[in-house]
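Minutes, project check-in
Item: structure for the 445-residue chain
Input as provided by the requester:
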Amino acid sequence: MTIQLPGKVKYIIDTLVQAGHEAYAVGGCIRDSILGRVPGDWDITTSASPQQVKQLFLKTVDTGIQHGTVTVMEGREAFEVTTYRIDGEYEDQRHPREVIFTSSLLEDLKRRDFTINAMAYNDTEGLIDAFHGMEDIEKQVIRCVGNPVDRFNEDALRMMRAVRFAAQLGFTIEENTQSAVRRLAQNLDRISAERIQAELVKLLVSEHPEMMRTVYELGMSQVFLPEFDEMMKTPQNNRYHKYNVGEHSILAMQNIRNDKVLRLTMLLHDVGKPACRTVDENGIYHFYGHPAQGAKMAKIILRRLKFDNDTIRSVTNLIAWHDDRPSLREASVRRAIHRVGLEQYPALFEVKRADTLAKNNYRRKEKLELIDSYESLYHEIMAKRQCLTLKDLAVNGTDMLELGLERGKEIGVTLNRLLMHVLERPEDNTREILMNLVKTEQKPE
């Protein structure tokens, strides 16, 4: 097999080889090249020591020199060059206490996580595939190098990586590897929330977010997202649904584009349902108040997983309003946009469609048509540049002071009252009309 190495990668490998060292492109870049994907980066492994690498290249950065990694700068591009190594004992389910440099490529490949990531290549020797990574690519399976229990005991995050790779590549996880995850899933509690978050997001924005089901089935979500386990255990016995809360949420993720905020929203949009479930005299389930409850719970979950504030704000707002249904007249939609917040649009329509498509067929066509009409009115309102917020009002606090209103609460109350008037009658948003409205209100009876 021939892999087309980028010119700068070939230059680094050739420089090392000409100096008497071994060097190969290794890991994910080889996997992706074989799969016809564009590698995100190119890593190089070599028999040269970090000091020897530094001597051969003009500009290097000591990014992880204690673990054998030197970053070689070629122009503005950075390439990690790592010395062959054997990892010592892992002390925290994530990092080796020490690394031992070795002259053996095979020993270096042995320490890697999955067979598809344990292949190396250079133009002289071609593909080095000691652990049958090509075979596993052909079979479309994720399998650990060697004993999966050993690999996961070394680094518990590899369990999430297994599912993430399966989701990104459309592969399945080999049986022994799955069994080891089930056995060791609890070890994820030793992994930082930031690391788990990064793997979760990559899974969710992949082409197969339904692999979230595997995260549940293998016991991992119980460790970092127990709320999802409750969703998977909560049926929805009513005419609108045919799946439990968790399965409905998985299908909703599949029905929306692969954007981080949108996928997180669909994963958690009904997280409040287990806590809100009631049963009427006919045995029908209801989930009154679940959007507000879900927004509160999602905020706690996303903070626990160390998401940034902007993501938390966007996701929780979309959850809070995902079930809001204004009447289909312009004034009602203007009020809804003001109430929900302009920043939630037009994403809110995508959320509503994904939610509807993940339910059963009862009145589905009608609901989708209502969403279409809602969105059409939104676009008409936006095209007309109608007033939707206080900053769009034709008057401001200075104008109110001119009319003799007191600073503070009185001005705020008056401006909000004018905004409510303009949301109903947008043609009145002129300074003259609004000032006259306030003057009329001020006249003694």
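Outcome recorded: The mean pLDDT is 95.
No further action items on this chain.
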